[in-house]
Amino acid sequence: MTFFIQEPVGWHPTPRSQLVLDPVTAEVVRWEPFAGQNMGRRLRAWVRPFHTGEAAGLVGQTVALVASAGGAVLAWTGVALAWRRFRSWRRRARSGEAILAPGPSQEVSAD
Fold this sequence. Notes:
This protein has helices at about 40-50, 55-95, and strands at about 1-5, 15-20, 30. The chain is α+β, with helices and mostly antiparallel strands.
């Protein structure tokens, strides 16, 4: 069994230590305090609260909300643009307009 124990140390929002017990005998198999974890694991534990906005309280969460809303708007505008281009392409294909590059009689001058 693995347990994660959250220790209120300093201002870090989630410093978690890991305790692994044998499920049959309940003996401690491994105890890994937060300070004893490798650098990558500690770095991930520090970065996640900043990424989600937890570390800076209401201001950080507001910034995360605005960034998430901006990402959603970018996704929506990308889909809307693709849909509009697809409908325009279908309309041109039905009307018989040239869809590909212009032919020799339709060349555009470089003036």
